[in-house]
Design goal:
alpha+beta; 3 domains; 3-stranded antiparallel beta sheet; two-stranded antiparallel sheet; 11 helices; globular; binds zinc ion
Length: 264
């Protein structure tokens, strides 16, 4: 499995990644990382650090995960949701044109992915100060601009992405900021979190946005309930049950349901 961007290590771009096996232990680690105190970027880093077994050919560490470019982090969060069994999300909406309700399905594995452009993770923007060298923003950069209003955040993020200390102190016009944004977009890997669909009644086209960080909201309640049902039947320990691959846990739950049906 390959990242659309990748990490640089020993002068080489490394795109390989792997998640830990999809057991209850992994689900619990993800739920705990998601529930930890801290900002959204910090929680994404905690979840990915817990979930990855391999990042660019080495075990993941907090700094590397926090320093991944935003596109790679969104990509990994979507792939993690699929790895933990989420295939699709349904959204129920009311058509703004005709007022009819309809359901719309987004498939996690079909989310389009744009690989990084030439020069990744660096870019150059033509600004009023000449060409300025840039690097793509990371989770750490996102975290650094939290709490600023949108215009301030755009400018602060652009400055952080400038490679040169002196360049960071230059005044940046709106046109400069646009040039920086465009240059970064051209090399940034991306996941297509927007999808369009037509209303089945009137044909009006609607755009939907998929939250790439959706699995942060899952919680562990279902997992506790499943451990409880299996423990109550088989008297295995919590550790033993969480160590089961997700698919095997599901089979035991199916058998428990079946047995209950036969009794009832
Ligand atoms: Zn409609």
């Amino acid at each position: 499995m390959e990242l659309p961007g990748g990490v640089w290590r020993d002068g080489q771009r490394r795109r390989r990644y792997a998640f830990r096996p999809p057991t209850g232990e992994l689900e619990m680690a993800v739920a705990e990382g998601a529930a930890a105190a801290g900002s959204l970027p910090a929680r994404v880093t905690a979840v990915l650090t817990a979930a990855l077994a391999d990042l660019g050919g080495a075990p993941p560490d907090h700094a590397t995960v926090h320093g991944l470019c935003v596109g790679d982090r969104q990509f990994l969060m979507l792939r993690l949701a699929a790895w933990l069994g989420l295939e699709r999300v349904w959204q129920s909406v009311v058509c703004a044109s005709c007022g009819e309700p309809f359901d719309f399905c987004l498939e996690y594995r079909r989310v389009p992915v744009k690989a990084a452009g030439a020069g990744y993770p660096h870019a150059q923007a033509k600004t009023s100060h000449g060409r300025l060298a840039l690097r793509l923003p990371s989770g750490a950069d996102q975290e650094a601009v939290l709490g600023l209003d949108e215009a301030e955040a755009v400018e602060a993020l652009a400055r952080r992405c400038l490679m040169d200390d002196e360049a960071r102190r230059l005044p940046l016009s709106v046109a400069d900021l646009q040039a920086i944004e465009q240059a970064l977009e051209a090399v940034a890997p991306e996941v297509g979190t927007r999808a369009q669909t037509a209303c089945p009644q009137c044909g009006a086209v609607h755009t939907f946005t998929l939250d790439p960080y959706g699995c942060l909201g899952w919680g562990a309640e279902h997992l506790f309930a499943e451990v409880h049902r299996i423990a109550a039947t088989y008297h295995w320990s919590e550790g033993e049950i969480l160590a089961l691959p997700r698919a095997r846990r599901r089979r035991y739950l199916g058998l428990i349901d079946q047995a209950r049906g036969m009794v009832g």
